[in-house]
Amino acid sequence: KKASSANGDAMEDGKYLAGNGQVSLASISGDGTDLATNSLPYSPGMHVDLDANAKSDGAYKFDLSFQIKIPSDVHIWLKDNLLKDSVDMRISDYSFNISRADATTFGSKRFELIIQR
Questions:
Q1: pTM higher than 0.90, yes or no?
Q2: Would you say the C-alpha torsion 24, 27, 33, 36 has a positive or negative sign?
Q3: Which of 2, 13, 64, 90 sits most deeply, having the most CB atoms within 10 A of its CB?
Q4: How far is 48 from 58, CA to CA, in rounded Å?
């Protein structure tokens, strides 16, 4: 949405509320707010930080749902800052591990989305 702000906006975004689930995922607004829904203006090569957490150690996977609703010329890359890896989510899922003893394996610094047209 062209008129959206990179910062959290209570009228356009949905604040993330922690639940009782095993896994949690939120996007992070420009002002550092965890969001469940994040309206952003598109800019080529834009980055969206993610906050990925789990209550226990284990293997987890990102996959892209509703690909049919994303224009075919839009690519969504998942970047893993810990492993220095990235994947085009239109082409492949991404598996990763979380170890609660190692804070670099989860949280707000590990993953980001890069959206390119």
A1: no
A2: negative
A3: 13
A4: 24
If you search the block for the tokens 């609703």, which residue do you land on? Answer: 69
Beta carbons of 60 and 106 less than 8 angstroms apart:
no
Q: Which long-range contacts (CB under 8 A, 24 or more apart) does 44-48 make?
A: 44/116, 44/117, 45/114, 45/115, 45/116, 46/114, 46/115, 47/112, 47/113, 47/114, 48/112, 48/113, 48/115
- First-residue to last-residue Cα distance in the chain: 15
d(CA 30, CA 86): 22
From first to last of the 117 residues of the chain, give the pLDDT tens digit.
676 777 777 777 777 877 778 899 999 998 899 988 888 877 888 899 999 999 999 999 999 887 777 788 888 999 999 999 999 998 899 999 999 999 999 999 999 999 988
Count of all residues that appear for the chain in the document: 117
